[in-house]
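Q: I'm writing up a methods section and want to include an example of the input and output format. Could you take the sequence below and give the corresponding predicted structure tokens, formatted cleanly so I can copy it straight into the document?
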Amino acid sequence: MYKPLSAYIGLRYLRAKRQNHFISFISLTSMLGIALGVTTLITVISVMNGFEKELRARILGAISHATIQPLDRPLDEWREVIEQVNARGDVIASAPYIEVGAWLQSNGSSAALVRGVDPDYESSVSDVATSMVSGDLTELRSGEYGIVLGIGLAMRLRVGLGEKVTVIAPRLKASPLGASPLMRRFTVVGMFEFGEHENDTGLAMINIGDAARLLRMPEDSIGGIRLKLEDLDSAWRVAREISSEMDGAYRVRDWTQERGNLFQAVRTEKTVMWVILSLIIAVAAFNIISMLVMVVTDKQSDIAILKTMGAHSGTILRVFVVQGSLIGVIGTALGVVGGILLAQNIATVVPFLERLFGFALFPADIYYITELPSDLRRSDVFAFAMMSLVMSLISTLYPAWRASRTDPAEALRYE
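A: Here is the clean output for your methods example:
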């Protein structure tokens, strides 16, 4: 024999046609269970990664990576500040803004966040220009009092292009009749759709000059700076560094403070799903224990003969470790291949199943995301494969140890 004795016998036991077909059935079930578990785990986590990636893209298409806002005064000479900020290597772009919560009224009414933007700068920090479903962001010209609405907000107000919307800001102005809120009529010049409920139903944009006039701010002053950065995870640090280099006191916020709870909820769901689906692999691993215990009982005489011929307990232990581990390796390999193929083709498989069974998994009138996105990550595949292999290996230890403790005299007493 050119193979190690333990590997040779373990492979032979795995390939042998046994009289006890139940043992073979459990071996096959264990192998398929591991394959199914790994396939399911890779596919589900890839889909959840896809949802997280799609959600992040849609949300960050409207909100900025970070904002810097003066605490006690409007920001003057902001063009020079933006030039200095854009010169940093970790900043992709920056844009001025003025933001205020307001009440919008037309054929309907709704509260909304009104953001004053400069169209020349805004396109570099957000995706609003590419998310327009009607009109154009460049229609927001200073002095013309145009407004761009989210598609859901436009539906709430029951307005279309060219119609008027009254913006009522939560600030008061003095008049001969007493204090009254600041308000202005704007003309709808466009509508956008990010595919994310909060932005589509609660965001409106006007020209930054019109916003300053509405809020009675000094001419050519802004409320703050929005940043688009190279690294999302360092948004808070970069914004703090920029604000520390500027004169005065500033309020710094990043995207995790804006929508961090939502992304944290997605990550928690991924963790819970990972734990639940791992139980499929654990059940299959327990089947390996059951199968090997029956094999050890069935092979008592073979083990005794090997020991009488001089085989050590370690050799006997490795025989059954090899046999059980091979089931785990084959099952894991099949699961990895199946999971990769399914995750990469989920956008094709789901529509096929919808046509076959006549149902829509994500109806367009209910969900913003109507397709299953998938983001297959090499690190996830490696982690799930290693977890499956480790579970399979651990499952072999007790039956293999039990086999190595076999007493030849007791095993051969009745032979």
